[in-house]
Write the structure tokens for this entry.
Amino acid sequence: MGRKWFIIAIVLLVPFLSGGLVGYNVGRSSGTQKEVQVASTYPGAPFEEALPVKYEPGDRDSINESIYSSRRNAITRTVGLASPAVVGINVIEVRQYRQWSPWGDDPFFRQFFGDRTYTQQVQGLGSGFLISPDGYILTNDHVAGNAKEVTITLTNGEKYKAMIVGTDAVSDVCLLKIEGKSLPYIKLGNSDEVITGEWVIALGNPFGLFDISDKPTVTVGVVSATGMNLRSQEGRVYRGMIQTDAAINAGNSGGPLVNTLGEVIGVNSVIYTPNQGNIGLGFAIPINRVKGVVAELKRKGKIEREFWTGLEVQDVDARVARYFGLDRAEGVIVSDVRRGSPAERSGFKNGDIILEVNGEKVADQASLVSIIEDAKVGDVLRLKVFRDRGTTDLKLKLDKRQE
């Protein structure tokens, strides 16, 4: 009886167990296939098994080289070319000071109390750059023009005593010379080809940082504008200036403004800084203007600006404009022509109204003075003159002032 029930149990359990095993295997196989499908459809899924990445030594070197190369661009290459030619300039000037007096500078009281002035040595610093392998250096007149002693520091740490070849306060250009051979120098570019918006690099010695590392500080920006005419400052005439937002701070004066070809397009000179810090308004003297000054300084050591015109002028107001038939009040009117003067030889007459000089419009006396002050002895100015309700062109040669 017991054997009979054992056989019946076996017969019933075997099909049941077989079916369960088949169903389990089928379900497991389907789930695995689905997981693989999902993993392939959604890479990076949390249940995807991470595969180890293997690099060969050559592959690793190639990746490092690719990353390093991507860091180098036109700006870094230009900095590498220009930096060795940038120098730090330290100067010692002798300045004269006048002691305060309750009577001011009245000469009557000076005869009783003497000339209450004293001199004092003052240290200053600035930037410059080599423009030839034999040691010619460009900087600003306001950096080194009045220096008693000038020390130049190169990027290799070497120091030189510099000689002032010549300086010009009007253009704010000073030419220095150190004794050396095969020195690094920067190529001078063409500032007439400067494009507004192009990248530029300002290099120099702001706040004396060059003295710490023997390397110039680099700032990058764009050309914001060209042909900017600024107000004269202490007899210096800043015309046709290049404006940039590359940060220029105290000590950058005299340093180069370089384009991405590694060429100097300007000499950093002026910053507009109402808060004593950089606000993105820096100005550089166009290098084409500097080239002519440098050539003259090499020949003569100075720029001959002691010329005269023999003209006396006044601003044109609305009343004068109506009287002479001008559409609007502009230009300056000639009120007197000195006898025997360059102006008389050029054919000027009283009542002539000067509208343009060398193609540049004359708004008032200040603009005319600014244009003429930038000239030198021997220059010939082309002037457009309004006369007898029409315009005529005159040429004015600037002769040396007669004593």
Q: What stands out?
A: Residues 31-48 have pLDDT under 50 and may be disordered. The chain has ten helices and 22 strands.
